[in-house]
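Quick one, C-alpha cells below. Sequence please?
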C-alpha cells in the first residue's frame, strides 16, 4: 500500500478558495489512480473527484463540477484539489485515496489506501 498525507485544509469564507495536497510515499505513485472523498458527521463518506494514473482523465461529482479541479504531479508524488467558489455545504473532512491501476471512479471499494483527512470549514 501507499502512504498518504493530506494538508491544506482550513477555515474559509463562502466564495473563497483552498488548495488541498496529498503527499504519497512508500510505493510508485504513478502506479495508482487517485481520488478525493469527503465526509461530514453522521453522513457516509462521499466521492468528490478522481484522476487517472498519468492525470489525463478526471471525473467529478456533479456538485463540484466547475468549482473544483483535481490534478497530480507524479514527479513530486503529490495530488491536489483546487477548490474555488466554496460553499458552506463543502464543509467536511476531505480524504485522499489511492487505487492500484490506471483509473478509478467513485466506488470506494476500489481504493485500498487512505489518508487521515484534513478539515475544510466554509463559513457563510
Amino acid at each position: 500500500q501507499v502512504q498518504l498525507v493530506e494538508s491544506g485544509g482550513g477555515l474559509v469564507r463562502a466564495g473563497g478558495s483552498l488548495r488541498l495536497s496529498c503527499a504519497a510515499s512508500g510505493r510508485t505513485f504513478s502506479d495508482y489512480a487517485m481520488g478525493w472523498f469527503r465526509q461530514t458527521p453522521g453522513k457516509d463518506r462521499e466521492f468528490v473527484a478522481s484522476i487517472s494514473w498519468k492525470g489525463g482523465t478526471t471525473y467529478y461529482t456533479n456538485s463540484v463540477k466547475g468549482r473544483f479541479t483535481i490534478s497530480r504531479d507524479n514527479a513530486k508524488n503529490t495530488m491536489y484539489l483546487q477548490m474555488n467558489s466554496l460553499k458552506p455545504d463543502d464543509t467536511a473532512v476531505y480524504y485522499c485515496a489511492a487505487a492500484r491501476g490506471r483509473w478509478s471512479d467513485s466506488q470506494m471499494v476500489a481504493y485500498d489506501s487512505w489518508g487521515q483527512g484534513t478539515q475544510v470549514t466554509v463559513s457563510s
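The chain has no helices and eleven strands. The mean pLDDT is 96.
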